[in-house]
């Protein structure tokens, strides 16, 4: 019997070891579920029209009115232009940012937003 097999049998032979194995399996299943469901949250056309810096304007639909936590979290990915009911309007979001937002369990859908000039576009910043 190899040492790895012996450690595995010892680990599974205890209540704490079995609990650890179940928790790790649940964590892996949760990550797989988030990854699989993320693709279905991004509507067609979201990544079709980047601005001149390669960033996007998107609308993020939640199943509830956004609270401070959600706004602060989504500001990591882009600038908030405003909210309407359950929708947050973001601009200057990167392609990776769109994918990261889609992985959040509390996001229902990501749609293309209305593109308009931001202050940074007008003054030439970025």
Task: Describe this structure as you would to a colleague.
The protein is an alpha+beta fold. The chain has two domains: 3-41; 56-116, THUMP domain-like (Alpha-Beta Plaits, 2-Layer Sandwich). The chain contains five helices and four strands. The chain has helices at residues 3-12, 15-41, 68-74, 95-102, 119-123; strands at 56-62, 79-84, 87-93, 107-112. The chain has a four-stranded antiparallel β-sheet with strand order 2-3-1-4. It is elongated and about 60 Å long. The protein starts with a helix and ends with a helix. 14% of the residues are buried. The mean pLDDT is 86.
Short description:
This protein is α+β, with helices and mostly antiparallel strands and 126 residues long. It is 45% helix and 21% strand.
